[in-house]
């Protein structure tokens, strides 16, 4: 594993702990409407993060079910009722959930809004997004500088968010244009999102604030171990062979963090319902052949039909019997029901498709295997 990857993982925990300590000193925003904090999340990843932090101290509802994609989600009346009764709504942000503003208005939600993306250095994310687009268009691997974007604490500019008011009235003030919204695919970014969620829950429910912070810090240890393990697995693959094509541009930050080249996606978009042109598909097939791509991977939220067609034309394998979990976590029994499980699953599927060995999990991740 590279020095920069190891440094990044080691610093995940103190960065999160420092951010949470600041939130514990902040004025309380309020208390839950009942004995238990009623929390609604948009995506399945956010639901898992909230569960890891909230435990039995929250009543949790996810608007999106396992297998669903936020790119083309429309809440039902039942889901709007759940939102109307929520004390807290947790969203990804970064323009992922186009339905949120209308859902808030339709439901009459008046609780606290937590935007998980506010725990991320979005300027860095924008640079990584642009880097990926340039790499896919030019066909040349990008140079990844893992240490160049972060402050010395390993997580850039978290403190600037500590005193922000994240009530839903300020939601539209954030400018997340040109940022790939799949922030959670990086365990490093997931740690920042967890810190933001923990800050928000602690402010909304001061009676359990210390418990939320303790759980989030414990979970950060697991995320750091995950980041280290994934980095070690890909470090053993020759650089020229670490090239990936996916269904849509859903793994941008995962690829960046582990120095995996991005040769493009079937859907030339952050969204999984875009329509590629014939020219797009021809160009992707040419890049697959030129860069020696060994497999095409399909996300769980997408149909594999187009991937199979491209794979036949390019003469490569399509991995669709075991999908990658990017937009959503897996259904019960999939082995990808939690964020940690899904990230381990994705890593294994990619490595096995490349014919590479997969190392054992560390003790901190053993229960997630």
From TrEMBL:
Gene Ontology cellular-component terms listed: cell envelope
GO MF entries: metal ion binding
Domain of life according to the entry: Bacteria
Subcellular location: Cell envelope
Record bears the keyword Iron-sulfur: no
InterPro entries (UniProt xref): AdhesinB, Bact_metal-bind_prot9, Lipoprotein_PsaA-like, ZnuA-like
SUPFAM superfamilies in UniProt: Helical backbone' metal receptor
Main location: other
Annotated Basic and acidic residues bias: 142-179
Regions crossing the membrane: none
Similarity annotation: Belongs to the bacterial solute-binding protein 9 family.
Protein name, UniProt field: ABC transporter substrate-binding protein
Naturally occurring in which organism (per UniProt): Leucobacter komagatae
């Amino acid at each position: 594993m590279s020095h920069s990857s190891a440094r990044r993982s080691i610093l995940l925990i103190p960065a999160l702990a420092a951010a949470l300590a600041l939130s514990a000193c902040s004025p309380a925003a309020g208390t839950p409407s009942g004995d238990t904090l009623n929390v609604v999340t948009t995506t399945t990843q956010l639901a898992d993060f909230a569960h890891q932090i909230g435990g039995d101290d929250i009543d949790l509802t996810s608007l999106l079910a396992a297998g669903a994609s936020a790119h083309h989600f429309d809440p039902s009346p039942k889901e709007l009722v759940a939102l109307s009764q929520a004390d807290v709504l947790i969203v990804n942000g970064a323009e992922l959930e186009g339905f949120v503003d209308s859902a808030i208005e339709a439901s009459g939600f008046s609780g606290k809004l937590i935007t998980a993306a506010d725990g991320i250095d979005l300027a860095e994310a924008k640079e990584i997004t642009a880097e990926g687009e340039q790499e896919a268009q030019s066909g040349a691997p990008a140079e990844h500088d893992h240490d160049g974007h972060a402050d010395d604490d390993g997580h850039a500019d978290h403190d600037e968010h500590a005193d922000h008011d994240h009530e839903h009235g300020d939601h539209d003030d954030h400018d997340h244009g040109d940022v790939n919204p799949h922030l959670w695919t990086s365990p490093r970014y997931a740690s920042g999102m967890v810190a933001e969620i923990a800050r928000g829950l602690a402010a909304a429910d001061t009676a359990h604030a210390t418990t939320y912070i303790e759980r989030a810090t414990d979970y950060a240890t697991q995320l750091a171990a995950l980041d280290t393990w994934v980095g070690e697995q890909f470090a053993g693959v020759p650089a020229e062979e670490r090239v990936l094509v996916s269904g849509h541009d859903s793994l941008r930050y995962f690829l960046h963090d582990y120095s995996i080249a991005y040769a493009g996606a079937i859907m030339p978009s952050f969204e999984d319902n875009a329509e590629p042109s014939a020219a797009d598909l021809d160009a992707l097939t040419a890049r697959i052949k030129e860069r020696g791509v060994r497999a095409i991977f399909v996300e769980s939220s997408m149909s594999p039909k187009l991937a199979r067609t491209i794979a036949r034309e390019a003469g490569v394998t399509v991995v669709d019997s075991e999908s990658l979990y990017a937009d959503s976590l897996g259904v019960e029994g999939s082995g990808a029901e939690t964020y940690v499980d899904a990230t381990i699953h994705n890593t294994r599927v990619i490595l096995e498709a490349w014919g590479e060995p997969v190392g054992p999990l560390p003790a901190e991740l053993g229960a997630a295997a």
